[in-house]
Specification:
Layout lengths: L1 H16 L14 E12 L3 E3 L1 H4 L3 E8 L5 E7 L4 E3 L3 E2 L1 E10 L5 E12 L3 E12 L1
Length: about 130
């Protein structure tokens, strides 16, 4: 009986040490971020509008890296009412959202302004209300 208790304790100790398992921690890659925004359309005359009622097809997220001058433009279907940009490196950015008709003409703009990105992750730009007459 005594040997059985010792054998059980020994097997338990081996199980607790995790012998035979290796945990590999790999260094993270380059710090990269993206922007996320949601939107809606509001008419001064008629109140809230759908994309179809507004004649809108897409929303562009126009991102300029002030430090390097590089520019990224991500386009989303208007009916998604949200969008997440492609990945980019950290830095200082100016962000502009454009509500476009099917030909690409701008119906309304929302200037988000400067964003100083210093950490990796998704930066929430908030909820944008595109204003139409």
């Amino acid at each position: 009986m005594k040997n059985l208790v010792w054998a059980s304790m020994l097997l338990g100790a081996i199980g607790l040490c995790g012998c035979g398992r290796a945990v590999v921690v790999t260094p993270a890659g380059a710090i990269q971020d993206n922007f996320f925004a949601t939107w809606e359309i509001e008419s001064v005359q008629f109140g809230p509008l759908t994309c179809e009622q507004a004649g809108a097809a897409t929303v562009d997220m126009d991102i300029v890296n002030v430090d390097t001058g590089s520019r990224i433009v991500d386009t989303f279907p208007c009916n998604d009412y949200q969008g997440t940009s492609d990945l980019f490196d950290i830095g200082h950015f100016d962000v502009l959202l454009n509500l476009n008709d099917p030909t690409g003409a701008v119906l309304s703009q929302a200037e988000i302004g400067a964003e100083n990105v210093t950490v990796a992750g998704t930066i929430d730009l908030g909820h944008v209300i595109f204003q139409l007459p």
